[in-house]
Amino acid sequence: MVYIKKIEMKGFKSYGETKVTVPLSEGFTCIIGPNGSGKSNIADALLFVLGGLSAKSMRAEVFSDLIYTGKNTQYAEISLYFDNSDNKFPVDKKEVVITRIVFKDGRSIYKVNKKKETRSYVLDLLSEVGITPDGTNFVGRGE
Ligand code: ATP
Ligand code: MG
Fold first, then answer.
1. Residue-wise pLDDT tens for the chain (143 aa)?
2. Cβ(68) to ligand 1 under 6 A?
3. Which ligand sits closest to the CA of 64?
């Protein structure tokens, strides 16, 4: 089964300018940490790369709010590293890296294995493994 091996974030929300890597393993993952330490921001990062079109669903007013508030940060870039050892993605690679970048003007671009691709290409690719932008269940605090 396809699973996410690693999340890489640069310039995203509280994660700052330098690249931050969150390694994941197969199966159940639990992210723990003090209040306000960025746990939910990781879930927001996932929704973002999976093609979310509602900034509010990522707890932002507008897309540019996803960018780290540091003065010099011009964009936010998130990559999800999917394990593809069973070739569920129709891509001849053991690893599929899906990246989405958002710029200050709110525009975003997508990449697959570092190559720029259209949003619809990325959504088609994700749908091959049963992932759709609204196919996840996020239960917020208090719900
Ligand atoms: P809780 O335990 O309260 O649910 P959490 O670990 O889920 O907290 P998050 O909601 O992921 O925490 O992170 C909140 C932090 O992210 C806040 O300090 C907020 O200021 C910060 N943050 C959100 N957007 C940005 C941004 N664009 N730039 C910098 N920091 C940001
Ligand atoms: Mg939270």
1. 899 999 999 999 999 999 999 999 999 999 999 999 999 999 999 999 999 999 999 999 999 999 999 989 999 999 999 999 999 999 999 999 999 999 999 999 999 999 999 999 999 999 999 998 878 877 777 88
2. yes
3. 1
Report the CATH architecture of 3-27+38-127. Answer: 3-Layer(aba) Sandwich (3.40)
Q: Are 116 and 110 in contact (CB under 8 A)?
A: yes
Domain borders along the chain are 3-27+38-127
